[in-house]
């Protein structure tokens, strides 16, 4: 859903007007004297400067393009949320993602979240509904992008991103709450029609012409059930919003153990091995993970952050899917390349995934008035049915924390495998390609 840019301008105007009033403070528009009823406003902008080694055969508007230097907006977001009435919570989230020189012009913001929620039992049970980022499976299946440690969350955890949802968000009814150290979310989702996905619009035949490799079914989808449960051993994390914090930069001591799933009956379809019969199967995704984020020396401000996850994805036999954030290419003229154009890589598929990330925050004011640094590294290692070799994608870099997450410069190196089909009809890694990215993030 596209939102006219006038809405964005109107929101800024409202903020300006409210800013002159006494009941607007710390980004909150208070509706009562004690501040228990309010609407909070936040914004985020992330800009990329990048040099990318394109996948073999990549083209840009029909011309061969081995590499590309580009500038793009990775994310711009506007959030409005708060307890606007007794036991009632409103959340509206607008934004734009992946806007570069190849994007449709004047695309405008689109709706990320639009949720109304009612608290039935204080802290223990809230029920909400709408277009929501509440999802199951794992911690970073729903990530707070404003405080992730690197350039991106583990993208494969957004398992149906823009396939049967709208950039992760889903039309859902959910229940959430806490019982002591136990935190839960349970969601029932009405999946979006596959025929409206970008992949279907670009190539309908890949969905309507069945093969012995599974793909999402074009039949009316059945309801999707998902959940995520975690035990929070130390500090409790807020569950006001669905999005998990990447790193607290030492502000909290958090150790969580989590597990979750996503299941949708008859979500997938393929031809049977006899080449004639049709096989329908459920999409079953399972994951367990652990997250640790804590200060090491509070006086100096040093901190550590670490996360590890194991998941088993069943999308049906030999399912595989590429992702290509801010893709700098428009096509690929080499049919042997599985990755597709630009910076595409097969991060999604039927099989098992291990993901790990770690970072270390140096002492405050390490760079004087320029702030401090936090180097990090992350890796995804996947054994996928469709691929004869493991898929390993890694990202490492350093954050220059000019003002925490509010003003942050990140310099990162990304490396991905290129899979090509050989004479034995196997997809194997033939080479690796890289990208160097500088991101500046500004948020409030």
Concise synopsis of the structure shown:
With 444 residues, this protein is mainly beta.
Structural write-up:
This protein is mainly beta and 444 residues long. It has a single domain (2-443), classed as Porin, CATH 2.40.160.10. It has helices at residues 5-19, 198-202, 205-208, and strands at 2-3, 24-25, 28-30, 38-53, 58-60, 63-64, 67-85, 88-99, 109-121, 125-132, 170-179, 182-190, 215-216, 224-232, 254-271, 278-297, 302-314, 320-323, 331-332, 345-349, 351-361, 372-384, 391-403, 407-421, 427-443. The strands form 3 sheets. It has a 16-stranded antiparallel β-barrel. A 3-stranded antiparallel β-sheet has the order 6-5-19, with no helix packed on it. It has a two-stranded antiparallel ribbon with strand order 18-20.
- Global morphology: globular
Strand runs, count:
25
Beta content: over 45%
Low-confidence stretches are: 17-21
CATH architecture: Beta Barrel
Write the layout of secondary structure elements.
Blueprint: E1 2-3, H1 5-19, E2 24-25, E3 28-30, E4 38-53, E5 58-60, E6 63-64, E7 67-85, E8 88-99, E9 109-121, E10 125-132, E11 170-179, E12 182-190, H2 198-202, H3 205-208, E13 215-216, E14 224-232, E15 254-271, E16 278-297, E17 302-314, E18 320-323, E19 331-332, E20 345-349, E21 351-361, E22 372-384, E23 391-403, E24 407-421, E25 427-443
Antiparallel strand pairs: 1-9, 2-3, 3-4, 4-7, 4-25, 5-6, 5-19, 7-8, 8-9, 9-10, 10-11, 11-12, 12-14, 13-15, 14-15, 15-16, 16-17, 17-21, 18-20, 21-22, 22-23, 23-24, 24-25
């Amino acid at each position: 859903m596209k939102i006219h840019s006038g809405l964005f301008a109107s929101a800024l105007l409202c903020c300006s007007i409210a800013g002159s009033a006494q009941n607007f403070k710390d980004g909150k528009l208070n509706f009562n004297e004690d501040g228990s009823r309010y609407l909070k406003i936040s914004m985020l902008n992330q800009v990329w400067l990048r040099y990318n080694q394109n996948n073999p055969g990549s083209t840009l508007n029909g011309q061969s393009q081995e590499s590309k230097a580009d500038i793009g907006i990775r994310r711009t977001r506007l959030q409005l949320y708060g307890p606007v009435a007794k036991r009632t919570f409103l959340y509206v989230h607008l934004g734009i993602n992946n806007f570069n020189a190849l994007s449709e012009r004047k695309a405008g913001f689109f709706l990320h979240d639009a949720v109304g929620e009612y608290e039935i039992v204080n802290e223990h049970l809230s029920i909400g509904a709408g277009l929501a980022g509440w999802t199951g499976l794992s911690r970073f299946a729903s990530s707070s992008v404003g405080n992730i440690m690197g350039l991106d969350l583990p993208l494969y955890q957004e398992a149906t991103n823009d396939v049967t949802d709208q950039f992760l968000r889903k039309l859902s009814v959910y229940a959430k709450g806490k019982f002591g150290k136990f935190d839960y979310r349970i969601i029932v989702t009405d999946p979006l029609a596959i025929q409206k996905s970008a992949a279907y619009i670009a190539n309908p035949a890949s969905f309507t012409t069945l093969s012995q490799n599974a793909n999402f079914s074009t039949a009316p989808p059945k309801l999707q059930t998902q959940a995520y449960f975690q035990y929070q051993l130390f500090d409790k994390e807020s569950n006001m919003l669905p999005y998990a914090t990447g790193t607290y930069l030492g502000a909290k001591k958090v150790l969580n153990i989590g597990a979750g799933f996503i299941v949708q009956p008859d979500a997938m379809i393929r031809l049977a091995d006899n080449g004639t019969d049709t096989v329908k199967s459920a999409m079953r995704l399972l994951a367990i993970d652990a997250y640790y984020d804590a200060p090491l020396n509070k006086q100096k401000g040093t901190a550590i952050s670490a996360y590890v996850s194991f998941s088993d994805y069943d999308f049906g036999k030999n399912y595989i899917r590429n992702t290509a954030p801010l893709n700098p290419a428009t096509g690929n003229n080499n049919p042997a390349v599985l990755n597709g154009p630009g910076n595409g890589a097969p991060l999604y598929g039927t099989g098992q995934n291990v993901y790990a990330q770690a970072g270390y925050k140096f002492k405050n004011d390490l760079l004087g008035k320029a702030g401090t640094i936090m180097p990090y590294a992350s890796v995804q290692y996947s054994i996928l049915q469709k691929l004869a070799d493991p898929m390993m994608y890694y990202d490492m870099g350093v954050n220059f924390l000019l003002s925490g997450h509010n003003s942050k410069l990140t310099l990162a190196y990304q490396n991905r495998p290129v899979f090509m089909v050989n004479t034995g009809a196997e997809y194997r890694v033939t080479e690796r390609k890289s990208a160097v990215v500088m991101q500046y993030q500004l948020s409030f």
